[in-house]
Amino acid sequence: MQKLTLKQANDIIEHALAKSHELKTKPLGVVVIDDGGNIISAQRDDGASMFRIDVGRGKAWAAVAIGMSSRAVGAKAKGNPNFFVSLASTGGGKFVPQTGAVLIRDAQGNILGAAGSSGGSADEDEPCCIHGVTKTGFRADDPE
Q: pTM of the full predicted structure?
C-alpha cells in the first residue's frame, strides 16, 4: 500500500491554505498525519494562533482512529458522548471529534492518513482540507 510522502503532505497543506485564502477564513493551522496517527507535516498560516496545530491534529487523529471524517465522528459522538469522552481520554487528548478533518484515501480506497485544520469555523475548515486532498490527487471521504 502506498504511503504519504512529505512532499504530498506539504502539497495538501499548500492547497488547503490556498482554499482558506480564497474563502477568506481566519488563519488556519493544517496538519497531515499518516494512517498510524503520526504527523507528516503541519503548518500554521501567518497569524494563526498556537493552538491551531493541536486542534487540527486532534481532528485528523479522530478521523484516522475511527475511519471516517471528523464530521461523521462528531455526529456519532452526539449520540454517545460518554464513550467519546472516554476515547478522548484514552487517546491522551489527541482525539477531537469535531468537524474539520477528512481521510486521505488512495484510488483503491485505502486510508493513507488524514488532513485536519483549525482556525475557521468547522464548516470552513473542512472544505479547505477536502480541497487540499483532492487537488493533490487523492480521495477525500464524503464528509457526511
A: 0.93
